[in-house]
Amino acid sequence: MTETMFCYCCRVHHPKDQMRPFATKHGLRWRCLRSIEAAAGNLAKRDAFGQQQSENNREDSRRIAERTPMMHLDRDPRP
């Protein structure tokens, strides 16, 4: 099993080798290389990264919402 860590920036778990400690005003937090590189770019690149991440989050939420109403079907109705 691959060990993963949570990226506070994009709020996704990534493999450890893609994560780096990142200094914030609240101390060190783990951040993925992709988000660090995106933040180092110009304004247009940062906006594009943010828009793409928002779209990914919306898609994840939509998939979860589609599965949630069907979760009761997985349970055995017998006590």
Assembly type of the chains comes to single chain
Element string (H = helix, E = strand): EEEEHH
- Give the low-pLDDT segments: none
Shape: extended
Strand line-up in the sheet with most strands: 1-2
What is the gyration radius calculated from CA atoms?
17 Å
Largest sheet: 2 strands, antiparallel
Mean of pLDDT: 84
The helix content, as a percent range, equals: 40-55%
Question: What can you see in these coordinates?
Answer:
It is a single chain. By secondary structure, this protein is an alpha+beta fold. The protein is built from two helices and four strands; from the N terminus they run ββββαα. The protein has helices at 33-40, 43-67; strands spanning 4-7, 12-15, 19-24, 27-32. A two-stranded antiparallel sheet has the order 1-2. The protein has a two-stranded antiparallel sheet with strand order 3-4. β1 and β2 form a beta hairpin. The radius of gyration is 17 Å and the shape is extended. The two termini are 34 Å apart. The model has no long low-confidence stretch (mean pLDDT 84).
Question: Can you give me a brief rundown of this structure?
Answer:
Helices cover 42% and strands 25% of the residues. The chain has 79 residues and is α+β, with helices and mostly antiparallel strands.
